[in-house]
Design brief:
By secondary structure, the chain is mostly beta strands. Helix content is about 10%, strand content about 45%. Strands 29, 31, 33, 34, 36 and 37 form a six-stranded mixed β-sheet that branches. β17 and β18 form a beta hairpin.
Length: about 450
């Protein structure tokens, strides 16, 4: 056999024979810091891990000895006994309690044996000695701080980290560089998200709004935190106007218009000047809506730029006539999950017209499709797109009964359907176009 193949086979066999628990134990990459001193875990000591109760378990001997406690393993009772500063704690293996100076205290995550090593839940044990235990999920680190009885240990955890922030107050750009000066071992969070600075201690932030608020939190290895906030204003060097209606289909004849523009601009809504605050924000209740479609015109004017900008908003007011329309169901005896269709017309259906056809358009809610029926439209159906619809209605024009003065007109029916729910809107439209025969004597007689 080729010697290289033989060496390879022996090497692979050796790898697969190695114990796998070492990698598994260290897979959580958890660190433990006691009064700013990190413990050194290895394969001989074992590695910390998170147990099924979401508690951090640590190798008992190396941790307690680093803490300065006396440690004893009692084989006969299968328990750990540790003592420090006159406090004695006994930890039975696989039991849901511990004994502190003989007093029983509940423990929801017991000490356990794993891969031949004894582990203990670090928080519940060290808190019995008056230690402060903090878990930092970002760095996967347990921070333990305590004072000795003689008071020689410094309260490191109470000293917040030093932080200096340099940022522009305003800029015309869409981004800005902020500089954060602090110790390198500290963790930095921007608006709740951890960030990394570049070689110049700078970080680029986006400025999506006119006023951009930022919160910087700096946490040191002892879990002490310093928080600072600042604002960067984005200066707009061109005229802008952002505006919207809080509800584009109100059930009352008024609607709240909100928006913002360049500070110092004047704003008019349908010709009426409204109040704008120093930041360019405004709110205005527009009242007196007409039934169905309303077009609200908003204009912002600037003396600085000597120009103006205009926006339009379409608002559909559900007038009282809609309430008189017929609602029905194809399954009146059953309760179904479908809601009643709602239709807002852009314009009222004319009672009299001199056109042979006209367009019915509008906005709808809870509607699968809309059908138009008239003498020349037999179940003309359309499915709304983005809650909008448009259908052409054709009228009878060559029959004297289509005229208002003589006949019954064209019956135009709009049917909106949603599941088993139906909305029916019915109108009568008269055609009053020119008569090819000239003046109609019969019509004159009726008018007389």
């Amino acid at each position: 056999m080729d010697k290289r193949k033989l060496v390879f086979m022996v090497l692979m066999a050796t790898i697969f024979m190695l114990p796998l628990f070492s990698l598994a134990e260290g897979s959580d990459h958890i660190q433990v810091s006691i009064n700013n001193r990190y413990l050194d875990f290895n394969e001989d000591t074992g590695y910390p891990f998170i147990d099924t109760n979401n508690r951090v378990q640590v190798p008992f001997r190396v941790t307690l000895e680093a803490f300065g406690a006396q440690v004893e393993w009692r084989e006969e009772t299968k328990s750990i006994v540790t003592e420090k500063n006159g406090i004695k704690v006994e930890l039975p293996i696989n039991e849901s309690y511990i004994l502190v100076d003989g007093k029983t205290i509940d423990n929801d995550s017991p000490c356990l044996v794993k891969n031949g090593r004894v582990y203990l839940p670090i928080r519940v044990i060290l808190e019995q000695f008056g230690s402060k235990v903090i878990w930092d999920n970002q760095s996967k680190t347990v921070y333990i701080t305590y004072d000795d009885v003689d008071g020689n240990s410094e309260k490191i955890q109470d000293v917040p980290p030093q932080v200096e922030i340099k940022s522009p107050r305003s800029t015309v750009e869409k981004q800005a560089a902020i500089k954060i000066i602090t110790d390198k071992e500290n963790s930095i969070y921007l608006n709740g998200h951890i960030i990394k600075l570049d070689a110049n201690n700078e970080y680029i932030v986006d400025l999506p709004n006119i006023t951009n608020e930022f919160k910087i939190e700096v946490v040191n290895p002892q879990a002490a935190k310093t928080t600072k906030t600042f604002i960067i204003e984005k200066v707009i060097d061109e005229l802008y106007l952002n505006v919207k209606a809080e509800n584009t289909t109100p059930k009352e004849d008024k609607v709240l218009i909100v928006g913002d523009t360049n500070p110092g601009n004047t704003v008019k809504i349908n010709g009426k000047e409204i109040s704008v605050n120093e930041k360019g924000k405004f709110e205005y209740w527009f009242s007196g809506l007409e039934p169905n479609k309303n077009v609200i015109n908003i204009i912002a004017a600037s003396n600085k730029f000597d120009k103006k900008i205009e926006n339009k908003i379409n608002v559909y007011y559900k007038n009282s006539k809609v309430e008189e329309d017929f609602y029905g169901s194809s399954k009146p005896e059953e309760e179904t999950e479908y809601e009643n269709p709602i239709v807002y017309l852009d314009e009222e259906i004319p009672e009299v017209t001199n056109k042979a056809s006209f367009t019915v358009s509008g906005t709808c809610e809870n509607t699968e499709y809309i059908t138009i029926q008239s003498p020349l439209n037999f179940n003309t159906k359309t499915a709304p797109i983005n809650n909008r619809f448009s259908i052409t209605v054709k009228l009878i024009t060559n029959d004297e009964h289509a005229r208002k003065e003589k006949g019954i007109g064209n019956v135009v029916t709009i049917i909106a359907k949603n599941g088993d729910k139906i909305l029916v809107k019915e109108y009568v439209v008269y055609y009053n176009g020119g008569d090819q025969r000239g003046e109609d004597s019969d019509v004159n007689k009726i008018e007389e």
